[in-house]
Structures are given as structure tokens and as C-alpha cells.
Design goal:
The chain is of the alpha/beta class. It contains ten helices and 13 strands. The strands form three sheets. The chain has a five-stranded mixed beta sheet with strand order 2-1-3-10-4, with helices on both faces. Strands 7-6-8-5-9 form a five-stranded mixed beta sheet, sandwiched between helices.
Length: 299
């Protein structure tokens, strides 16, 4: 089995490709592969995500990588699921979900402080609309400053004193085996991004590669991701809305936590429901958030 794998050229992206290859080889030991690196829109611009969104730039870490698959340069594209829009080219589909790494957000500081321990006025770095709103909601006395760049760049800026703390995905720290001090943010207070911690592979529909990878896809990860991403898809707004969702398996059921905030973090709505059908659960959570937020006007 020979796979041409398209991915971003960052350390984290290439590490995710390593994990994907390792997972596939457990099922197909004869796997041979070639990595095709792609520079994406998200890598080229240093403006905030909100500014890029206003210019109509979406799918910042996805389109060019998937384009390599569409144009036949690669067989699959490997992504962090949280970076993948809920709507992708109709000729493509997610064909493999890997077992989930930690889905949580973490607070990284030089001293290993918790969010409660940060001094008043401390500067926290993040470029995520969701994380910004959550920080403002939980600690309105803190200053939130935009932060872009790969994980290494963000940590370097923290160590240089540009920020007192930064917010990262725990999965990225674990995958890169980074030696940094961090505190995990409680998932009910700081609801993660839909799909966070899950690596996926995208391929053309109805191909031999698609069928081979679907046969080994992690069922649990797929269920969790389906519920979470359905919240975002049904609610609308893409990755620029301040919305988090996390599903957890509880026996035969799924527990889904979803959180919506306005951009200032002054208004917040949380729902937590149990159900069997991931897609139906996500739709229900999104409908509940819409109804709750509509009662208070704009979110």
C-alpha cells in the first residue's frame, strides 16, 4: 500500500502525519508513504483570524492541503480536525478518524500557574475567538492579546515576556512532547473546540484508498466528532463564532457539552445533554443554544 500524504509543513502537522502513518501501519504493515508539504493561507498571513474572516478568507489551514488531493498530487490529506471546516469540497470526505488525544485547552505559563492564579491585568495570548471570549468571561480583569504562529513561536513569545500566559491545545503539547509548564482548563468552564484532539484523513469519495481507511477508522472518535461538529454546523458561523463543544462517551450514551458566548464574553450560554445518536444530539444542542441566545438578542 502506497500513500501520498498532503499536510502542512509545521512540526505539529508533520508529527500528526507520523501518528497517522503509525496508526495505519498497525492495520496495513506494508504501508509505504510520501509526504507532500503545502503552505496554507493560514501560514501566509499574520493578521488575526477575525480580520482574515472579514476579508472572506476561510478554511485557512485546509483548502490548499485538500487541493493537493483534488488535483491528484496526493491520495490523502491529514488534518487536525478542529482546523477542518464542517463543509468541505463535495468530492472529498473524512475517511479516517484516529483515536482521540486529550481534547482540552491548557494555560501555559513560565511558573505553571492556573487561570485563577494569574494576577490582575496579566496578558493572555490567543488568536481563537472562542478562547478570547472564554477568558473574558471567566477572568474579565485579564488582558487578551492576539497571538499567531506555530506552537514553537507561541511558546518563544511567552518565554520572551511578550505574554504572561498563552492558551494552547493540550494535544499539540503531548504530540510534540514539549517541556512546558501548563494547567489543564476544566472542560465545563473552558469548553474545547469541536473536534479538538482528533487527527483525521481526507480523501476523494469512492476510491480504493477511501475504502481501506474507512475500514480502520476509530468508531468512538467518529461519534464524538460527529456530535461536536454538528453543533457548529447547525448553529452556523464556522470557526469564527465563539462556540465550544465536547462529547464524552458514557456507556452506550454520549454526553455533549456545548457553550456559546458573545465576542466580549459578557454573555454565555451552556447546554449539556445525553443521547445515543451523535448527529441528532449535536443538532439538539445547537437548537437549544440558538433558542437561549435569541431570547437575549444578539449573542
Amino acid at each position: 500500500m502506497m500513500l501520498r500524504i498532503a499536510a502542512r509543513s509545521s512540526k505539529l502537522s508533520l508529527k500528526q502525519v507520523e501518528e497517522f502513518v503509525e496508526y495505519v501501519r498497525k492495520h496495513y504493515p506494508e504501508l509505504q508513504y510520501e509526504i507532500i508539504t503545502v503552505k496554507t493561507t493560514g501560514d501566509k498571513f499574520q493578521a488575526s483570524f477575525e480580520e482574515l474572516a472579514k476579508k472572506g478568507l476561510t478554511g485557512l489551514f485546509e483548502k490548499e492541503v485538500n487541493k493537493a488531493v483534488l488535483e491528484g498530487e496526493a491520495d490523502v490529506a491529514v488534518h487536525s480536525l478542529k482546523d477542518l471546516p464542517t463543509e468541505i469540497d463535495e468530492r472529498l470526505e473524512i475517511v479516517a478518524y484516529l483515536p482521540r488525544d486529550p481534547p482540552y485547552d491548557v494555560l501555559v505559563t513560565k511558573e505553571g500557574l492556573s487561570l485563577d492564579e494569574l494576577p490582575k491585568g496579566a496578558v493572555v495570548g490567543t488568536s481563537s475567538s472562542r478562547r478570547k471570549a472564554l477568558i473574558k468571561n471567566l477572568r474579565p480583569d485579564l488582558k487578551v492579546k492576539d497571538l499567531r504562529g506555530n506552537v514553537d513561536t507561541r511558546i518563544r513569545k511567552l518565554k520572551a515576556g511578550d505574554y504572561d500566559a498563552i492558551i494552547l491545545a493540550e494535544a499539540g503539547i503531548v504530540r510534540l512532547e514539549l517541556d512546558v509548564k501548563y494547567q489543564r482548563l476544566y472542560w465545563r468552564d473552558f469548553t474545547p473546540a469541536p473536534g479538538q484532539g482528533i487527527i483525521v484523513a481526507v480523501s476523494k469519495k469512492d476510491t480504493e484508498v477511501a475504502n481501506l481507511l474507512k475500514a480502520i477508522s476509530d468508531i468512538t472518535s467518529e461519534k464524538l466528532a460527529t456530535a461536536e461538529r454538528e453543533v457548529l454546523k447547525t448553529f452556523g458561523g464556522g470557526c469564527f463564532v465563539a462556540l465550544g463543544a465536547l462529547a464524552r462517551a458514557e456507556g452506550d450514551l454520549l454526553r455533549l457539552r456545548a457553550t456559546l458566548l458573545n465576542t466580549s464574553g459578557t454573555k454565555r450560554w451552556d447546554v449539556e445533554i445525553l443521547g445515543e445518536d451523535p448527529k441528532a444530539l449535536g443538532k439538539e444542542a445547537a437548537s437549544m443554544l440558538k433558542k437561549m441566545s435569541d431570547e437575549y438578542g444578539e449573542y
